[in-house]
Amino acid sequence: MLTITDLSHIYPNGVKAISNLSLTIPKGMFGLLGPNGAGKSTLMRSIATLQTPTEGAIQFGEIDVIKHPAQLRAQLGYLPQEFGVYPRVSALHLLDHFARLKGFSKPQERKEMIEGLLNQVNLWAVRKKAVASFSGGMRQRFGIAQALLGNPKLLIVDEPTAGLDPEERARFLNLLASLSDEAAIILSTHIVEDVSDLCPNMAIMAGGRIVLQGDTSELVRRLDGQVWRKVVSRGEVGAYQSHYRVIATRLFAGETVLHVLSETDPADGFSPLQQGLEELYMASILQDRELEK
Amino acid sequence: MFWTVARFEVWYQLRNVYLLAWAFLSFAVTAGIFLFEPMRIDPGGSLIATSASYFLPTFLAIVIGLMIPMTAILGGAVVRDLQLGSGELLKATLLTRTGYVFGRFFGAFLPVALIYSLHILLIWLVCQSPGLPADKYPDFKLAALLQPAAIMATTLLSAACMLFAVGTLARSALVSYIIVALLIGAWVFTLTKVEFGGYEEMRHVLDWTGFASVYIANETHSIHERNTELLTLSQDFYRNRTLWLSVGGFSLFGAWLLQGTRGGLWGNRRVDADAGQLSPETGRLKRYQTNMDLAAVRTQIWARLTLDLKRIVISPAFGLLIAGSIYLFWTFANNTGSFGDRGIEPVTRLLVKELYNPSLLFIVLTASIFASELVWGDTDRRIHELIDVTPSGTWVYVLPKLAVICFATMTFVLVGSAVGLVAQAAKGYPLFEVGKIALWLWLPLALSVFQFSALALFCHCVTPNKIWGWVLYFMLAIGVSLVADLMGFGHVLLDYGLIESVPLSDFNGQAHFWRNAAWLQLHWTLIACMSVLGAVLMWRRGVEQRFKPRLAALPMVLRSANGIALAIFFVASSASGGWIFYHTNVVNSFATDHEYKKWAAQLERDLAPLEAWSGPTIVAVKLEVDIRPKAVTATANGILTLENRTNRPLTQFILNHSSIALETASMPDARRKEVIKDYGISIWTFTKPLAPGEKRDLTFKSALDGNTVADNDPLTAVVSNGSFIESTQLVPSIRIDRDSWLTDLNERKKEGLPEKRPLPQAMLGENYYTPGSGWLDADITVSTDIGQIPVAPGVLVRETIKNGRVTRQFRSPVKINNLFAIQSANYVVKRERIQLDNGPVELEIYHLPGFTRNLTTIMTAMRTSLQTFSKLYGPYPFGVLRIVQTPSYGAVDIAAQAYAGTVPFYEDGGWLQIIEADGYENDLAETTAHEVAHMWWGHQIAPPMRPGALVLTEGLAEMTSWVALKELVSNSSYGTLMGQALRTYEFERGKEKVGEPTLATMEGEEYLAYGKAPLALFTIREEIGSNLFDAALRSFLIRYAFAENTLPTVEDLLGTLKQAAKPELHPLIDQLFNERVTWNSEIGHLEANQQKESGSHVEISAAAWTESLSEIGEVVKNAAIGRAPIRLYDSVPCDEEKLDEIRRINDVSDDEALKNNCYMSAEAAAFSADLTRTLRYFQFTLPEAKWVGRARVGDAEMFGGKGAENSRRQASAPFPPHDFLPSQKPK
Q1: Gap between the Cα atoms of B1130 and B901, Å rounded
Q2: Does B542 contact A50 at a Cβ distance shorter than 8 Å?
Q3: Residue B784 pairs with which residues in a beta bridge?
Q4: Is residue A111 one of the residues assigned to a domain?
Q5: Most confident of A50-64, B482-496, B542-556
Q6: Do B99 and B90 meet the contact criterion of CB atoms below 8 Å apart?
Q7: 101-130 in A: which are within 8 Å (CB) of B?
Q8: Structural domain includes residue B1133
């Protein structure tokens, strides 16, 4: 279990990326949602020992991550949002290099692991090609492979499905799911569906804080009867926004559909909507903004 | 679109903080050069700061400096779009390739050009500053500023074009910088190294700055010309500029073409590799647990090592550096077979000497290149987050990087050595002495490699970005040492890793000198270990790059094994530093430059009054020298006989032991009254005054010890084989000398000393070389280890071998100067006896076994010179003449020295010289003849300490050596020898600090002693005839040889020569010695029509005049030359004599063809006329039809006819050409 307590991080330019954040992440898949600039990547990097937070504590099992980062690294798999590669180095060689850096000294073990991973991420056929020449999606798959090297007890993946086609995305999500029994997996993403499909637990971040966390299904259920929809003309949107707590404006079949949050029936032609994680996310963000005001 | 792109680029670059910072720095340095004396560029002390000659190197330095930011901004102007991806956006607009390329170039160049222009304005403003010294900043002329500025503006433009093309091609800042470094490096070596061996003309082509062509065209200018005239621009210069501006233009065009190729913005883009249609495979996912044991760490280190090594070795930058290093090392290694302009055998120690400093320079520069690439490479490629989350310890990062940096930098040392071996082989040197190279070069440089690699790694680890990494590295690696030296507090402990090469010789290799350097190597290696630990402790991991947080965490990380190791190395390096400091500052009595100058100034103030003391004179020396080669020590027990040659009793005298380690000294009826310890001077009192004519003995003991540690200037006199101890290192003197006085005028001024301190009357009559000594009776005994031969001046009178020691006693048959040397080595001796008029003379050559290459040449030169000089000038009195091979440990660029009957010949110039063509004069014969001539001029004639003294020694020795050479080598030409002397004079006179003295007033000026003096003497010899001249010198010797009371002066010599010359020659003698006069001639035009019946119609205009020059070379008076001969030449078939000469020189196979095609010049007519500075026109008709193809007036000559090349239409020399000598003028 990963426990984060009162974590704060302030960058040299004064930006407070994380503010008194506390979070508990159990074994299994954990989804982390949040808008751009919410502090997700800073949180990921702090957990991954890539930056020391200004304040707070991170504990993974028995390991104090801030004091003994090396101990965590031996159990860590990490895929950052963006990463580069060495020029003129093939996928096979680079993966082997990472395997060595992760401390796998036996060639046979490395071989088996690498071959298995390259097959899993569907890069076996291009294993001898330079990673630098890979397309964005292929490179992302390579990143996934390196993160899965060994037997990580904590796997942190930041936007892992960005750039993957639907087939590869499905393949990757299945792979993650198969690992979730043995490891704590933090999935940071913008794709709400990934979280709803995979993560029994989740948190939503905004402004460097956790605005909502808990069991995914439970959280979604909390919104029962509070989300309403109505088809309006485009010119009316402004007026509705000033009178209702609009959480989303959608286009559906050429018509504008408003989603609003209301504990009671707003009447005025609104009809109830079967809410999902996306509505929960939007509602949370709205509530957070309202609180900030 | 061009203007749109250019405007944006200008706007963009003007906001570039690095460019602005560089500009500010460049402005500050430029202003400093003019305002702050220590920063002055000093291409010649006499140059004023407002002359075009001064501005030229200033602008050159500005351009070279601007190349650094230019590389970044011109290269970056196009690379930026490719790297950031903005290129595609630009391409999607209406922008054309032409508009893009030229707009980017123009926009990036304009800010640089603006900065350059602001320098011109800045210099103009600075030169108007009222506080500047008037002697350095007299009248400011705008043209003098603008001309060199314009010259270097062309360099700036062509360089900018090339850099733009380089940036476009390389698409990497590092590669661009390396190319620029190589370009600058190649230029430096072009200027400094392609100087000899017939490559001079190549400088006009190779020098992309154009500086060399301007420099060469202005090289012989006088001080006045350099200070007042604009720069002379030769055709070579214009050709050079045309060439390099064209190269610039083509480079720009090349950049345009490159943008259209694959990889360029307008070319076909690369297509990403694609997985293609893959059949989905399930593949079993194997899971293993990380086990961080020793094997894992080993695997990690090996993984990083191989990857880092590949990254460096297969990078284009490394390949470029290797290619550049091959070129540069070849240039240096190729110089191995040169001693000055002489060809010598490229032995391995000379190769090592040539390679050491460039190799060290490569190490210093490339260590940071590789460190920066390796430390920042992961971050630059944004792969660092993936690497940093692996369970790799910090050592896993640092160790492989250190190893790779060491490997990469050491590669240059090895490449340099390989190039050196190839150069040796190309020069015909048969031995590949890899063992010597390994010991003398690889071993010390391997330590340097580690030291600078560790430092570079540390600097790039602790700093927050590459730029600061470079800045810190240069500060620590070079900056501290440089600034300390500039500020005058340089110390060996401030020169990180910059350990000078250990002296090498064919006698002993490194001898014991390696011990001197070993302590420094140990110290810097310990500091380097600390740097490595520092890099480990401060290694940045993750996204935090700042220094402060890592520093804050340091106390915590120090509580580890690394911290303990750091403490241990700190203690060890402090101890080694303390030991070095103790030896440098205490044992070796160290002073900083600043302290030394203060000390020397005070010494002069304190001791100058003592110069006026008249004291006794040393008239005899008895010396027993005990050389212990294995212990590297020598002791001397000596007796100096002092005589009162004044006409009054003497009550005190000075004992000067400043240059020796005096252990004891005693004298009957005398005692030491006062010791001025800091200066090595003692004042002695005669308790019983020394009466006129009375002699008394001073007994002394002195010692030499070569066992020093960390000595900047180690004692080289005593070594295990090849000791060379000069008398001044063992024998005290009894006068104040000026050896330690400051000579630089600026320094004297700064220390408040007078510009010049005239010699007191008491010193004027003293021997120029050994004040306080007369001609000595010398009795010298030298003992050394058996197996070595001791050598001292005089004839060998006794030899004993006892207890493993060999002792020889030498006594000179005549008196000698109190200036001699004692030598000892395992010599073999080549002997020959010759019979001269006054008896036999033993000729002996002491040399190392195996060094027999030039024995015959040296012996022949000795024999012929002795025979010639004794026949012409008088008997050789020393009974024996020895030439002794001498190690080059201590000597720099000296071929030989002359002592009475003994000539130490240094090993480089003497024993390795390659004589390419027998039958022609060679430097070895010339040097031998010159040194033998000193047995008359210097060791029989000794001038007093009056101006012009060197005319009597070096001037006469050089001129008379020409006479001996003519006897020695049948094909020897006086013209060649005079030409060499003229070049010596012309190239140096303009660099005088204060002005050129006359021959009669010169003091230590070598360009006059070796250049103008022999020319003047030879001119007089030619004019009054060799017989009369030589007889005059003989009579001069008869009168003044070994003279005790009246030492001969230059006036005495001139008086003797005037007696031999007709009265009409006296003014010429005076002009040559007492004035600065040039003889000039010019031919304006020549036209000759060959008319068969009425003869040949000739038109010619000519001028001839003398110029009297001031000290700085300004013309103060013109005078006409009366009855100057004008000679016209016809072309006629060669006569038999000419044919014979050609046959002798060339291998003629078809004699008939030679006869039919050979033409020579024959005088067709000659007449004389009074000529002046202005061209005078003549026309006349020759009675016969002749083809007048050439005319000559003095040394000026002109070839007539359409399309004919004009050659030397103007001529000027500091002596009259043959035709202008009074005896040659038509009656």
Answers
A1: 52
A2: yes
A3: B806
A4: yes
A5: A50-64
A6: no
A7: 101-105, 109, 112-113, 115-120, 122-126, 129-130
A8: yes
Whole-number pLDDT of residue B919: 59
Q: How far apart are CA B497 and CA B359, in angstroms?
A: 13
Residue A173 touches chain B, beta carbons under 8 Å: no
Highest mean pLDDT among B342-346, B485-489, B656-660: B656-660
Each residue of B110-147: pLDDT tens digit?
A: 999 999 999 999 999 999 888 888 777 888 889 999 99
Give the structural domain span for B129: 2-258
Residues of B numbered 569-608 whose beta carbons fall under 8 angstroms of chain A's beta carbons: which are they? none
Looking at CA atoms only, how far is residue B253 from chain A in angstroms? Answer: 30
Residue A196's domain comprises 2-75+152-213
Strands of the sheet containing A184-189, edge to edge, are: A76-79, A154-158, A184-189, A28-33, A201-206, A209-215
Strand partners, B773: B618
Closest CA of chain B from A57, distance in Å = 17
Average pLDDT, chain B: 88
In tens, the pLDDT along B354-374 reads 899 999 999 998 999 999 999
Total structural domains within chain B: 3
Alpha-carbon distances, residue A37 vs A40, A205, A207 (angstroms): 7, 9, 7
Pick the last residue of a domain from B544, B572, B590. B590
Q: Is residue B1165 part of a domain?
A: yes
Q: Per-residue pLDDT for A19 more than 70?
A: yes
Flag if B389 and A118 touch (Cβ within 8 Å): no
Q: Please give the backbone phi and psi of residue A8, each rounded to the nearest 5 degrees, phi first.
A: -135, 145
pLDDT at A160: 86
Chain A window 175-214: which residues touch B at a Cβ cutoff of 8 Å?
175, 178
Residues of A in contact with B311 (CB under 8 A): 86
Residues B380 and B516 in one domain: yes
Closest chain A CA to residue B314:
A88
Residue B660 placed within a domain: no
The tens digit of pLDDT for each residue in B860-907 reads: 999 999 999 999 999 999 999 999 999 988 666 678 999 999 999 998
Which residues numbered 2-31 in A keep a CB inside 8 Å of some CB on B? 12
Which of B546, B568, B590 lies at the terminal end of a domain, its last residue? B590
Asked if residue A117 and residue A248 are part of one domain, the reply reads no
Q: What is the pLDDT of residues B823-855, one digit of tens each?
A: 999 999 999 999 998 889 999 999 999 898 889
Residue range B766-793: mean pLDDT, rounded: 94
Chain B hits for A98, CB-CB cut-off 8 Å, are 386, 390
- Chain A residues near residue B275 by CB distance under 8 angstroms: 122-123, 125-126, 138
- Residue B516 has a pLDDT of 82
Bridging pattern class, strands B880-886 and B839-847? parallel
Closest among B531, B534, B526, B529 to B578, alpha carbons compared: B526
Fill in the amino acid letter for B1090: Q
* pLDDT more than 90, % of chain B: 54
Closest approach of A133 to chain B, Cα-based (Å): 5
Partner residue facing A74 (CB), from B290, B304, B381? B290
> Is the CB of B561 inside 8 Å of chain A's CB atoms?
no
- Higher pLDDT: A62 or B39? It is A62
Residue type, B1055: G
CA-based nearest residue in chain B for residue A136: B272
